[in-house]
Protein 1
Amino acid sequence: MRFLPHTERDRSRMLETIGVSGMRDLFADIPADLHIEPGSLDMPDALHEAGIIRKFTQAAEQNRHAGNTRCFLGGGTYHHFVPAVVDYVIGRGEFLTAYTPYQPEISQGTLQALFEFQTMIARLLGMEVCNASMYDAATSVAEAALMARRVTRRERVVLAGSVNPRYRTVTHNYLSRISGSSVDVPCSGFATDVDAVVEAIDGETACVIVQYPDFYGSVYDLASVRAACDAAGALMVVAFSDATAFALIEAPGSLGADICVGSGQALGIPMGYGGPQLGLFACKKKHVRQMPGRVCGMTHDARDRRGFVLTLSTREQHIRREKATSNICSNQGLMCTAAAAYMSLMGDAGLATVARRSAAALSRLVSGLPDHVRAASGPRFNETVLSFADGDSRDHFLAGAEGCDIFAGIPLERIDPKAEACHLLVATTEMIEAEDIADYHAALEAVR
Amino acid sequence: MSEHYSGTHGLQHEEPLVFERAHEESVSIHLPGVEGDLPDDLTSFARREAAGIPGLSEPETVRHFVRLSQWNHGIETGFYPLGSCTMKYNPRVNETLARLPGLAQLHPDQPEHTVQGILALLYELQEWLGEIAGLPHVTLQPAAGAHGELTGLMLIRAALAAKGEGYRTKVLVPDSAHGTNPASASLCGMETVELKSGDDGRMDIDVLKAHLDDDVAALMLTNPNTAGMFESDIVEICRLVHEAGGFVYGDGANLNALVGIAKAGDMGIDCLHINVHKTFSTPHGGGGPGGGPVVVNETLAPYLPVPRIEKGDDGYRLLHDDDQSIGPVLGSIGQSGVLLRAAAYIAAFGREHLHKIAEDAVLNANYVLARLKDAYHVPFPGLCKHECLLTDEIQNRHGIKTLDIAKRLIDLGFHPMTVYFPLIVHGAMLIEPTETESKETLDAFCEAMLEIAAASEAGDTEDMHAAPLLPIRSRLDETGAARKPILVWTEEES
């Protein structure tokens, strides 16, 4: 077995040192009736490396992927360009095969990368501090709700109905087993109903969670939500799906977010059929001791040289156990390194280009729509909802577009079960070229 | 160090923060996409001030991160005997496979007929995990072990509620457990009761019995436990908990000792999470991503999270809605890229070799134990499973603590073991070699440990208190870091 270095001679010498006569003696403490016959598992025989490559390649070839199609799918996951350098960096064995940096003297690479990641994310989001990541956006939103409850010592959580339904479902799920309540505020017209959100904030409210740009891509003013939070003593949590947005539009921190959470997948991480994702979590500095998750801090060593360590660990499960701020242990460390490498390479200018072209593609797509399809009104970043006369005409178009190598959008009810089955959630990135948009329009014309 | 040259130790380079390397403005990067005027209603929201993200050229970026990588120790660099972490070799071919465009470049909401290949691989992985654990119903959704614990406890609460026993919220957790166990219980709205371990490091059946009452929802148990000992009374333990109306949650962090040897389901465990980043060798990545699939028996199966992968006559599909389900615990079906690597690891061993993972892992741990047991205090003598537990009791007499031993190991060329865990012994050193280490490596590690013990005995301890002396940084001021946290860089910090 190629991953096992021992020869049979090694094994017998080692057994001799241990003082047992055979391998099975090492398992003598397991009751005999629990032992299963070696090789008796109901599984396929071992594959050699060539066989595994063949198996996975054949499986991969059964799928259609963003590399050979035009991907207009979003809903929390976006097909942005990932420079080869990003993948090279996280493929380095020293980053890839390291553990959580508990021994800082020999983990300065991971730690400095995390510190750079935290700084860049905080800057991009306009927030004061940021942790070293959560699993994904949905669990980040849930953890933000829990954190807001700790900070305010209140138990009511208000969620705008325009927050990605998946983030809301996971959040309600996390909150449903502890005391307190969580409420969704209905939205209308595929945009955030700010007045209704403001209306729902009361003196018992720990936080209001809004998404900006919202699930439908709508960009709107958060000032009245901020004012209502101030009046009620509630925290404003701002969620987001595509972090590149904040290279173009005002960052959540500048709009007064107390906690800002969302997905960092857009920052150099392939879509990966759902993961590994990257959950981002930032907050105001004064709340940092209620923040969940790993965080890296700057310090110095015994010879007064700058260095980095995991810090504020007294918040965490391995120290505080049942009183910890969260149960989270593993983060998405490697994805943080990917995002750090991506942002280092892109810089303000590159990120702005990504965001501008993502938005420009949507604008071009929407402005050229034939009149049997209607786009949601109001300002949008890189995502919107297209409405068809009925489900049949939408599905007819989807099938036709797929025939032209276009994934034209996500049936809205797939993510938002309450939605009528005639809408399409459509997203664009810098990977969409003018020709792709022209083909999209042509596919729409073809089913008029 | 010169201000002008970075080489300080041969060609070991100092490397500034990326912000200190940055130019006044970003180097331009050539990107795809369409340009065009943006609508006024959007530009009215324009960001006023740039974020301050560096923007280095490609060669500078590569050099920056490659230098940082060289300050790291990884399993590819050397031995990494962290107990309870299962740091084993991560096959390179798995990296290649996970990056195939037909697997990595898939959007999670593509129509299901365009993703049949990946669904087939993931479905097969579910079947394998179920078979290995003897618990046939599986969710791949949890993103890490702790996330799996939360999911499992949610399932248990759902099953209890369905029986009209929602009032059961007490979770029994041995004092040797991982901190995530009680933390997960709290997150799930349950109360933890800590069970004191017996003198032999195993669960004390009488202590368990004393806590079994009508409020008990579950016992969370790691087996082998975190002292590396198999809970030989496991069948009796499960029977007692079931009799009292509770469930047994298995923390699968230590599954590496049991793969292909014994099944959790046969022991009576109802629900188990599997850390694929431990047992099935997906890379730890400096803290993650991980994967914590949960496997359960018939009783808990109806409550598994959605979406679920189902196999039908016309292929695979995702089931998004199910009334009995606890609902989703993640925004996607799971960390597919991680799960694919785990599937590849299992496929390489297959039916005939899987048990050799556990055999060589347990052999290696016992070999290290046998070589070190005279020089170090062994709190619970006898055979261990995949990891062995030592303490600093002997060295402490000479003023040498576990931390000193760990740091001295670094100077001798080894990553330290897990220190000060489990909490049930003073000065714990938990060593887990895994199956992918050679005898030569284990011997070299043991020699280093024996050298430290001998130096301690001889009072030759100066190097130990100051260790590590050789890495790019010596001991770091962690207290200062926590007291006055600096979590982001500002120009004033330079």
Protein 2
Amino acid sequence: MIPLREIATCFEGVIPAMMATCSLEGEPNVTEISQVHLVDEKHVALSHQFFNKTQRNVRENPNATILVFAPVTYDLYRLQLRFDHPESEGPLFEEMSARLQVIASHTGMLGIFKLRSADVYEVLSVEQLTSYFLPADPRLDPAAPTTGVLDAMARELRSLRAISDRVNRASCLEALLENVLQALDEELGFHHSMVLLPDERGHLVTTASHGYGTAGVGAEVPLGEGLIGTVAARRRPMRVAGVGAELRYWRTIRAELQHAGKAPAAPEIPLPGLPDAQAQLALPLLVGDRLVGVLALESREAMAFDAWTETFLNILANQIALGIDRAATATADDEAEPPPGQAGRGRSAAAGPRTRVFQLFRNDDCIFVDGEYLIRNIPAKILWKLLRANAETGRTEFSNRELRLDDSLGLPELRDNLESRLILLRKRLEEKCPEVQIRPVRRGRFELQVGCGVQLRESDSA
Amino acid sequence: MVSIDAALIEFLTSGLVLGAATRDDRLVPDVVRPAGLRVEPGGQEVTFFVATITAGQMLKNVESNRRVALVFSHPQDNRSVQLKGPVLEIRPAREDERPLMDQYRARFARMLEPLGVPPSFVMRTQLWPAVAVRFAVEQMFLQTPGPAAGAPFEGPLRSPGPQP
């Protein structure tokens, strides 16, 4: 029998499988299924979320046969199965349930359907069906790369070391995050990535991104929502291949519900980042059991992230987590060395003719600039403090230490993440109000550069 | 006996994913990927074609018990229908039926191309020689994923939902 691990890509959910069952009366039944989950060397599992003929059949006659396709190569395999048992709790059930909800949440159907059980099947045989296809035509089908697996692994290992070195050498949190995302692109070809850090409400805030232009920094993901929120809540990596197929599947269910007059109330939530991502991978950044962030990657290639990618990026994620924690726990004022080349490159602070209006809404500590959302919570309180001091006294230079000593900002005493909050504030200003900038000047000190007229307004609520 | 109307014929022959299930005397099911079909005049019988080299177990099964189920699934929007009934005839496909299989393969390739499947792969599918299996459509089921999946299909098949 072909070992299941050798055909693991068939179980990523990129191409639907075909499944045949038979009732006790001898009536065959056939249906497409969106994903077969690989459990171990002898078992696969199917999700049971609706009562249907397949579930009824295997509970009275456990025999089943499925056809699965391998993505990319389109090799076809027939698996003879025997229904073994359903699981409605435990790690397998939770993993499959979380995957279901990740995609359901993007189509506005979080919690509408619950996984009833993970149905576990024993795999009796695996057979490759080569007879379905004529031999490949070399003029039409380009040859597969001939690079050996060991060569590829050696290259990936070298890349991993290079990225690891850059993490280790980073002088501050901002440099660490930017270096690592850039290196993921340069060394491993992952063009779209972001790091999200938790804020005081438990939301995850995009603090660094690569491959998305200037937009995206500051975007928030609630804990438990979508792939990133789920990974943060479960503290386990997850990847979704064939995002397009999954979304199509759930949109069909959504349309069926609407037809039946049971339309879910929630609107569809756009995927974070690429609107046409085909694969997503998110890894929790953990120090012990403590979540310090999430590393998220996306690709337009359905099979960009496999089990191997997930494993070796996990090693990197552990290192990034330690780096973030090191930056966050530094309490002295000497921790924030400016990123290379940044200290002196600030734009002129000469006030131009334009006046920007900053409006603080005190009820949710939220600042808008010229009517457009800028930032909220502690970074907003920090910005307000700086802008007021500048307006009242003309002061431009500030220290991390004085922010830490200011109780009104609400920074926690331990692991205050001040540096990540300043990075977020700096990037949001660069995107939304480039006339006002925060530039590191030396260790633990930064400068507020104001290149326009500033008007400050405060109100209790919008 | 149910009858397949013109609108459903158009859907069934538009180049969909096909799967045909049969079973042996021990109730072990088999599934094959047919390579084309024809709805017979009158709309009460369907003939589907399977490349002979892939049809071994299916032929043994239908010769023994004559039961078959055929599913049609739209790869872009997941609309799906399943037909069931007794096999009336099994025979080698005729030369004049070969263009039907070529047409199916070409439509299937066009259907999958927007999803990233190279047409060159679909065009490598084995077609010939093939067996033709004609069966009476006794039952039709809606198979589109959702709470109504598995209910008897009474038509018409709805338009696909919005695909943003």
Protein 3
Amino acid sequence: MSALTAESAREVPSPSVHRSGFIRTYLWTYDHKMIGLQYLWTALAFLFIGGGLALIFRYQLAWPNTVVPVVGHFLPASAAVDGVIIPQGYNMMVTMHATVMVFFVVMPMLIGAFGNYLIPLQIGAGDMAFPLLNELSYWLYVLSGFVLIGAFFAPGGAPGTGWTAYAPLSSVAAYNGTRVGQSLWGIAIFINGLSSIAGATNYITTIVNMRAPGMKMFRLPLPVWSLFITAILLVLAVPVLSAAAAMLFSDLNFGTSFFRPAGGGQPLLWQHLFWFFGHPEVYIMILPGMGLASEIISVSSRKPIFGYAAMVWAMVAIAFLGFVVWGHHMFVSGMNLTLSAAFSVSTMFIAVPSAIKTFNWLGTVWRGSIHFTTAMCFALAFVSMFVIGGLSGIFMASTPIDLFVHHTYFIVAHIHYVLFGGSIFAIFGSLYFWFPKMFGRMLSEPLGKLHFLLTFVFFNLAFFPMHNLGLAGMMRRISDPTIYEHLRQLQPLNQLATIGAIGLGFTTFVFLYNVIRSLRHGAHAPANPWHSNTLEWTVPSPPGHGNFPVTPTVYHGPYEYSVPGMEKDFLPQNEPAPAEARLHSH
Amino acid sequence: MLPSGNGWFRRTVLLFVVVLCGTAGLYAEQRSGSIYWAPENATVTGHEVDRLLNFIFLLTVSVFVLTQAVYIFYLVKYRRRDGVKAHYFHGNTKLEIIWTAIPAAIFIGLVIYSNELWERIHRPPPPNALQVGISSYQFGWDFRYAGADGSLAMPDPEKISMENKFGLAEGDPAAADDFTSAELVIPVGRPVQILLNSRDVIHSFYVPEFRLYQDAVPGRTISWVWFETIRKGEFQLACSQLCGQGHYNMNARIRVVDEAEFEKWYREKSAKAQAAAAPPKIAENPTKTTL
């Protein structure tokens, strides 16, 4: 490693060479790295908003109709009375929690932060293809966030129709009582969609056109592959949601009736449009996590990723099939029954590439030399949690079982195993992994381990009991399960889940403390602390403006670890293999 | 720079064991009734759904235990040790084919099993099925029975309004002696077909003990849901589709009773309805002529 740093140090300009003011550095910048960090900090702030909302309504579920401690009395009148959550307030918080987590935390974190930061660095480019569009897409994201949060202060309060906003509840003001809030939700989703489309266009262009010499498509690191495929999904799926949001806005405010049967509209049209976006969306949120976790697992196992090509083709298959499975959200919606059966078939098929990926991760750790860094722990847990989320999906893919568990807590458990156990675990792992590159400091490993351990335990405590709640018949989105005789006996499970959620919430502060402490006092990060092969580790931490002083040339794939015949156990992509190395190129 | 794996690893495993035992203890402490599994089934098709559920449960649990056992074994066995280098290989095509083909075969089998059952659950109801009209609204349920003549008037969703809750055609002879109820009462062992309507937004008919869920969509009548109960009891019908601020409390009582009790209840309701329907009919006529 020392040889490597010495070698690259020759031509690296000091990062301070390119100096500009506060605004041009932190607020309006064309540097993809800073834009990535803008996304990172903003999404982190939203994580606390979305998580806070979850804790408030989890409290209501565990101890219904009691004063919410600490925050109860600060809640607006539309959500709580005398510190006690009211039913409509509960609906609002559930709706806003999911909307914030999906559109303002997971997507911006994976795609905005890691996408922006890593794509140019890993393909050997100086920046994105369209830097202005890139910065614009960040500020559109911020704007949409303000519009969404603004809904809390609208007359009638925030929308309470669920993040899925099923029409005609969402599209007729008389039914939902929150015309302004619901309209703001529609606007926020629309603007957020513009941001996603702009970002995705940029990624596709950059990856197709700006790869360094020798960086063939099949030499791309898997995070880049996953983000490339995700960007294609975004460009194809998000416009459909934007159109649906515009129709919803028009129904609410201009008296049209796209979704209202009395005016000739079709309530199911909303569901078809929403899920045509919504299912690719699920993969939009998990594919980058898969890519990032694959990188961490390969590096920390000191082994080539098992089945690189299979990994890529599995993602391509997921992307294609992702567009023909939306109907599995609608088996019991009143859609044609034969259509349900057809969607059940396509859904079972999309499970195959996910299975392939899981087996390939197992193959990667097999006969490796596994370093249990915090990043690796999160990546390894990602695999296990994703397996649980994937397996519980099989229940719902089976049409008769869906008759039973549809819209129960079983699906809440499923989505959180995929989105939290999957995406958020991958995000945390990636933060530990790339933090040194981003900020030039190492995160504390002991604090990281503590963070991981608490997250893992509390996550399972919070979400595993939800499987049981669902099987026992507890519906989603009800503010007080104790009203129902058959649900009253389940309160211990609800309380267990809430205790887990509170623990999970507090654990995030361990992470925050680690970040703040390490930014000031963390050990200085070398260029390549994990002995990785990808190009971002060939430049200093953090990389200077323009990334690469000299455009790197790529000689082989990104996963040449422990190559026989070589002294060191890694071989950076820009280093030609020494004569004695017995390389199997892929 | 990389933390030494060994000591940390042992401590982690130990902590996990402690936490897992603690959680198990917590669980055991809470054991009461059917807190961990589905409530006792109450319908003929529900029994088959349960069989499929148990099958998928066994399948997924075995896959989970098997993959995780291998995974954890590898993680322990191949942890970093001084002087031991990782093996260098990029994959194995034969293995890739195997672990593509096996899941694919399992999923194909599962989809055939599932859809065959789906088909059977949704075959047309037998002719002796008791038809019940269900009209859902923000935030409650109305049930309508055929009355003395045994024929239920078919709802027309376009006619549904606050005054005409079931969307009945004017002067429909079948509607004349229909009666409504605030609870769903059904005879055990007789097939029941429901005609689902909604007056406003999407609601859903969900009874966990029946293993049954179906959305009620405004503007349409959904008539393919039917079931046959196998045990008496009281159940709660719950709306399981977020439908507004009163959604959490949108429920109704379902009573599954024996045939004799049902007949008695039916006759009483029917007679009461006919008695109540007679006088307004006279009062209704003049208003109609003025229109």
Protein 4
Amino acid sequence: MLRSDLSNLLSGDVLEEEMLLTLGELSRACRLPAERILELVDEGVIEPVGRNPVQWVFQGVCVRRVRCALRLQRDLGVNPAGAALALDLLEELERLRARLNLMD
Amino acid sequence: MQFKDYYKIMGVKRDATQDEIKRCYRKLARKYHPDVSKEPDAEARFKEVGEAYEVLKDPEKRAAYDQLGANWKSGQEFRPPPDWEQGFEFRGGEFTGRDSQQFSDFFESLFGAGGLGGRYSRREFHARGEDTYARVSIDLEDAYRGAARSLTLKATEIGADGRPQLRQRTLNVRIPKGVRQGQHIRLAKQGDRGFGQGEPGDLYLEIEFQPHPFYKVEGKDVYVNLPLAPWEAALGATVKAPTPSGTVDIKIPAHSAAGRKLRLAGRGIPAREPGDLYVVLQIELPKADNDQAVAAYEAFASAFQFNPRAHLGV
């Protein structure tokens, strides 16, 4: 890489590692009204830590889960509960695939 | 441009009912949805099916498409007939300028800004750009040290003239130390450009490790198989082992069996809480391919009362 390119080096956040978001931040990151986020919390698509919405903290990976749930709802016509189920199964599948990869 | 046979893409007959078309679409969408499918061309197939459904689900667009006749073949060179823009009254449906960018030239020429329905997409329109997604392949060693990667991304976007065009750009991205397979780096506002005054979307980069000849990774733990000579396993030894952060000396305890795992705490992927490195012991037998080696094996055999099959009862 050229020296001049180094100044344009882009840094991002690793969703699954370093990010913790409040309800407002998650809502902005997903471009979704807070009411829709609450709906997804009710269906168990994402799980905040904290007793009530003002204290809620979401892990960065929730951004990915919310966006994926929205795509599944839009493209496949599933409801939020169905999207939650699909997300859980997809994660399980990913874990099993990683396990399988370890064995061969 | 090439003709697209939307019926063939969806695998339905030309006289399929609207319900049949919907059922077929749902099935194909589940099969090829990029969030669900692991098929390598899933995204392209999903878009193709989405485009076909966009036309066939709408009785007006479908009737217009059927007007072209049944004799066209997929991939055949195609120009819309000169009288194409006459004789059909479109209500526009939910079709907007935002949707058309993901569809083919063929679709665009028939139903896009230049063709039928153009008046609907020409209106003033502001929208945030779509979030985009790309995969970046790194070596395991990059996750140990951090790295910089240069990525070339291609995106179709709507130009100033309202036609889709290909934009290619190169981004230099910092790969943070400690990143793992399947994690996502979010680069704010590096996604598709917005329309009108809408701001750009975000770019999500999914980390993928190149397969390594001898390291395997699970989460933040790394595994390496370490072959030992039989006497090293039986008597204990200090041997060299590779790790992604450099060679280390490992003390093999006496009486080690094949499959035994030795954990090197904190030598896995250096995440905030670092993973561990597991050295999995294997026992390699030297070949008995000369007189001296054969004599050694014979001395070995006579020194033991050893039945490795005792637990099988034979």
